[in-house]
Amino acid sequence: MYIVTAEEMYEIDRYAIEHGGIDGRILMENAGRAIAERLIKQEAGSQAAAVIVGSGNNGGDGFVIARYLLQSGFRVKVYQLASNQKITGDALYHKQLFINQQGLIEDNVDAEMLQDDLPNYHFVVDAILGIGVKGEIRSSIRPFIDLLNKSDKKVISVDIPSGLPANEGIDKDIAVKADFTYVVESPKQSLFTEWGAPYYGEWEVVPIGIPEQAYSNHSSLKRWGKQAFVSTFPKRDTYSHKGSHGKGAVIGGQRTMPGSVTLTASAALKSGAGLLTIATVEDNIPIIASKCTEAMYQVLEDRDGVITKNHTDLFKAFDGLAIGMGMGRDEVTANFSQKLIQALDMPMVIDADGLHHLKPILNTVSERNHPIIITPHFGEMAMLTGYTIDEMKRKPFSIAKEFADQYQLYVVLKGKFTIITSPYGDQIVNDTGNAGLAKGGTGDVLSGILLAMIMQNQSTMAALGNACYIHGLSAEMRVKSGENTEIDLLASDVIDGLSNVFRTLSDV
């Protein structure tokens, strides 16, 4: 599923019209009809709907929705916020169709009138403003958005809640807080940002017949889901052996933090790594071995439990490394990490303290044959880039892309919406997971899954997308099954849940 900016959506529509031969009125009909059909089922117990329209294509969709609701027996009235002169083109065509069916339109509306009328309706369709919003909302529209937000009526937005920018990085003024949004054809960027997502409420994408070719030149951002996982995750060969699925190493865990590498290693093994070695200080090994009996061990030199100078050639025989979990930020430990990163050209997942070790040598890691994957949360990404956390949240897609391109590495920017970016500009979003993952150790688990996945026979982007998908899905399934709640879910529960995830997905 593609995720688009406003500009990309305009180009995709244009392609469908100019090269696909689909008239704009048909696209508008398809959108309005598809939404209306869902509304008729969703609101089967209702009898009356108010449809509030503006002057653009979003308003045109509203006229189509109103017509189909009317035909299905709903009592419908359209409240037109724009003057008649501003209803033009495809929207005017569909307005006239609605009128031809004796549809009621109130075209001289003020907020006080609408407030008086709203009690007469069971739900409200918001088709006021579309994806082109930038900056301050017009004073003539603001009272209506404010009224909808204060109303106790269910509000269903068309494509995007009115007033909300479609793109990241645009200042939000005032926007409708929808209960449900029917997204037309493709989700917009703001749906996958922390500042935009709450306005959408629940949401569903409604296809309208745009040809697949329209996306090939106009969008490189996708949502990663079940279909992507099933189509890319490699099947195990009947004659495969432990060496077929990767020999990995997890490097970290000073004496005071043995749990982090335990979680990473356990997750890697549970996710399919063939062989796994934990490189840590000697005092940690009995603790870790009692929890992760399938791993092997490499003792790292230490001083008072802090990892010190070690030989990088200890790790040359591995297929992939995960570095940084529970490692600490002592200078001598950082020096060891930096030598590993610079000396070994193999797939690496760098997380936690390893990100702090990486920062001083970022300019030296771009010329590699194998990928470096970093897994920062917003705070760590701010540390690496110099942006503030607020700036990171405002435009996460562009900042991640800029950083991945500059240093030629893969960025797994963790959050409610995890944004995965390649050095070549490709981006995917994973939105599985729940608030139970907001707990120490879950990032260590993700690093282990990532390590296992990059050692399997799949592209790097597919490996990263699949790892994030099953990590979040495990948390969702643990809560949905009643084994955990979002409060008591632990990182180790996420590991335990992976078996059920793989079992479920293998049946698809």
Automatic annotation (TrEMBL):
<feature type="binding site">
    <location>
        <begin position="414"/>
        <end position="418"/>
    </location>
    <ligand>
        <name>AMP</name>
    </ligand>
</feature>
<dbReference type="Pfam" id="PF01256">
    <property type="entry name" value="Carb_kinase"/>
</dbReference>
<comment type="similarity">
    <text>In the C-terminal section; belongs to the NnrD/CARKD family.</text>
</comment>
<feature type="binding site">
    <location>
        <position position="444"/>
    </location>
    <ligand>
        <name>(6S)-NADPHX</name>
    </ligand>
</feature>
<feature type="binding site">
    <location>
        <position position="58"/>
    </location>
    <ligand>
        <name>K(+)</name>
    </ligand>
</feature>
<dbReference type="InterPro" id="IPR004443">
    <property type="entry name" value="YjeF_N_dom"/>
</dbReference>
<dbReference type="InterPro" id="IPR036652">
    <property type="entry name" value="YjeF_N_dom_sf"/>
</dbReference>
<dbReference type="GO" id="GO:0110051">
    <property type="term" value="P:metabolite repair"/>
</dbReference>
<keyword id="KW-0456">Lyase</keyword>
<comment type="subunit">
    <text>Homotetramer.</text>
</comment>
<feature type="binding site">
    <location>
        <position position="377"/>
    </location>
    <ligand>
        <name>(6S)-NADPHX</name>
    </ligand>
</feature>
<dbReference type="InterPro" id="IPR017953">
    <property type="entry name" value="Carbohydrate_kinase_pred_CS"/>
</dbReference>
<keyword id="KW-0067">ATP-binding</keyword>
<comment type="similarity">
    <text>In the N-terminal section; belongs to the NnrE/AIBP family.</text>
</comment>
<feature type="binding site">
    <location>
        <begin position="57"/>
        <end position="61"/>
    </location>
    <ligand>
        <name>(6S)-NADPHX</name>
    </ligand>
</feature>
<dbReference type="GO" id="GO:0052855">
    <property type="term" value="F:ADP-dependent NAD(P)H-hydrate dehydratase activity"/>
</dbReference>
<dbReference type="InterPro" id="IPR029056">
    <property type="entry name" value="Ribokinase-like"/>
</dbReference>
<feature type="domain" description="YjeF N-terminal">
    <location>
        <begin position="9"/>
        <end position="216"/>
    </location>
</feature>
<keyword id="KW-0511">Multifunctional enzyme</keyword>
<feature type="binding site">
    <location>
        <position position="159"/>
    </location>
    <ligand>
        <name>(6S)-NADPHX</name>
    </ligand>
</feature>
<keyword id="KW-0413">Isomerase</keyword>
<dbReference type="GO" id="GO:0005524">
    <property type="term" value="F:ATP binding"/>
</dbReference>
<keyword id="KW-0547">Nucleotide-binding</keyword>
<feature type="binding site">
    <location>
        <begin position="130"/>
        <end position="136"/>
    </location>
    <ligand>
        <name>(6S)-NADPHX</name>
    </ligand>
</feature>
<dbReference type="GO" id="GO:0052856">
    <property type="term" value="F:NAD(P)HX epimerase activity"/>
</dbReference>
<feature type="binding site">
    <location>
        <position position="326"/>
    </location>
    <ligand>
        <name>(6S)-NADPHX</name>
    </ligand>
</feature>
<dbReference type="InterPro" id="IPR030677">
    <property type="entry name" value="Nnr"/>
</dbReference>
<dbReference type="InterPro" id="IPR000631">
    <property type="entry name" value="CARKD"/>
</dbReference>
<feature type="domain" description="YjeF C-terminal">
    <location>
        <begin position="225"/>
        <end position="505"/>
    </location>
</feature>
<keyword id="KW-0521">NADP</keyword>
<comment type="function">
    <text>Catalyzes the epimerization of the S- and R-forms of NAD(P)HX, a damaged form of NAD(P)H that is a result of enzymatic or heat-dependent hydration. This is a prerequisite for the S-specific NAD(P)H-hydrate dehydratase to allow the repair of both epimers of NAD(P)HX.</text>
</comment>
<keyword id="KW-0479">Metal-binding</keyword>
<dbReference type="GO" id="GO:0046872">
    <property type="term" value="F:metal ion binding"/>
</dbReference>
<feature type="binding site">
    <location>
        <position position="162"/>
    </location>
    <ligand>
        <name>K(+)</name>
    </ligand>
</feature>
<feature type="binding site">
    <location>
        <position position="126"/>
    </location>
    <ligand>
        <name>K(+)</name>
    </ligand>
</feature>
<dbReference type="Pfam" id="PF03853">
    <property type="entry name" value="YjeF_N"/>
</dbReference>
<comment type="function">
    <text>Catalyzes the dehydration of the S-form of NAD(P)HX at the expense of ADP, which is converted to AMP. Together with NAD(P)HX epimerase, which catalyzes the epimerization of the S- and R-forms, the enzyme allows the repair of both epimers of NAD(P)HX, a damaged form of NAD(P)H that is a result of enzymatic or heat-dependent hydration.</text>
</comment>
<keyword id="KW-0630">Potassium</keyword>
<dbReference type="GO" id="GO:0046496">
    <property type="term" value="P:nicotinamide nucleotide metabolic process"/>
</dbReference>
<keyword id="KW-0520">NAD</keyword>
<feature type="binding site">
    <location>
        <position position="443"/>
    </location>
    <ligand>
        <name>AMP</name>
    </ligand>
</feature>
<protein>
    <recommendedName>
        <fullName>Bifunctional NAD(P)H-hydrate repair enzyme</fullName>
        <ecNumber>4.2.1.136</ecNumber>
        <ecNumber>5.1.99.6</ecNumber>
    </recommendedName>
</protein>
